[in-house]
Queue: 2 jobs
Job 1
Amino acid sequence: MDFLRYAERSAALVNAELPDEAALREHLADRSWLHRSVVTDDVAALETFRAELRPVFEASQADDVRLVVSQLNDLLARHPVTPMISDHDPTHLHMHVANRAASVAELLIGEALMGLATLVCDLGATRLGTCSEPKCDHVFVDTSPNQSRRYCSDRCSSRANVAAFRARQKAVRAQHDGDAPAAAAAQ
Ligand SMILES: [Zn+2]
Ligand SMILES: [Zn+2]
């Protein structure tokens, strides 16, 4: 189990659009051994779970530690985890958070919750966030050393920078326009 990666995957899960099985397989592009287990029920279960998980990121963004903890504990109770040792890569035995009988949805939900619970215990409960770019609703995990992350992606960060630059230019232009009559009157 790589909990930090699982926590980051939980953000990717909230951000993903998963309308059908094909989209879910696409989301699992780097985990081809799961593809043939994907069924319609996984799509529905993950849709519900993503809606349950978003408020955890929002509570963390609001620095509401108690709410983050209580929401995660509620979700852990609702989605119990049964781990197992996996041998899908026989040269690298490792723990999975769900056993062989678990559905793909149960596996992803277990990973997300164990990843987030571990992150909260190790790095604190305010490491999750929602993107500051006004038109973006993506969430993220902030692993930066000084906990300074504000955007879900470089794309949103540069989009926000461009918007701020344009706003400054507009303010400067507005000021010049305001100056014009005074300058004319002075002549
Ligand atoms: Zn594995
Ligand atoms: Zn964003």
Job 2
Amino acid sequence: MPLVCVCSPKGGVGKTTVAANLAWSLARAGSKVLAIDFDVQNALRLHFGVPLSDGRGFVARSEEHSDWSQSILTTGGNIFVLPYGDVTEEQRERFEDRLARDPHFLQRGLDTVLRYPGLVIIADFPPGPGPAIKAISALADMHLVVMLADTASVSLLPQIENNRMIGQPLNNKHGHYFVLNQSDNRRNINRDVTAFMQQRLGEQLVGVINRDESVGEANASQQSVYDFSPASAAAFDIELISKRIASLLNVTVGNGEVQAPIRTNHY
Ligand SMILES: Nc1ncnc2c1ncn2[C@@H]1O[C@H](COP(=O)(O)OP(=O)(O)OP(=O)(O)O)[C@@H](O)[C@H]1O
Ligand SMILES: [Mg+2]
């Protein structure tokens, strides 16, 4: 059950896009993948064709049920989605409060999926530190930090290095890795920052994703970038990153093994 947390000290950098496309890519390569949304924006589900009007999610349900797996939606393929759901401000506050106060709340909620053999879990988070990223970190196998190839991202690197995301180093199992997103090779600043990050992060930089208009178009059509535009630069970059991550996590893909079905709701 490798669990990958996609996070960043910075907002709007492409965390949700990277999380969704990583899930698509790993699923296409043969893994069974669960995408979990810990962001009240509830946007991750939109990458998998869940209708905007479908407000179901695990956060509201967690007020009465300790096992969150009953809120999983199926996409028809190898991908399963656990949406945050449409919640009131009070529900969000209560959820975050329980995450912060009850050390077993999240473990109980995810217990069923964490024990599911071979399931790869990709979790998406709101920007910056927060109760969800903090609570899940003990269970995480990898943190994937998404940054841009700009000076603002360079200035935020110390937030990661000084443990400002979860109060301790990201991550104690397979480590933490970085992706630079929305890079444009024609821009000097992007090239310079990429070179700087490569030097500073070394092997921890698992890849750079080109700024590519097919990303926004794929998002708008609720498809993966690969399915929307397989020949695009971003699709190529994401595939490489996904292969790198699969190898870091020792995820064996494409073995065609038939696994037990997950109990889900259809939409
Ligand atoms: N490689 C890319 N090329 C072009 N546009 C991109 C790329 N990656 C992401 N985007 C666009 O950037 C915007 C922000 O992406 P996304 O919502 O995934 O960021 P985020 O980090 O999850 O944001 P938030 O902090 O609000 O959760 C979206 O409009 C998305 O289509
Ligand atoms: Mg997001």
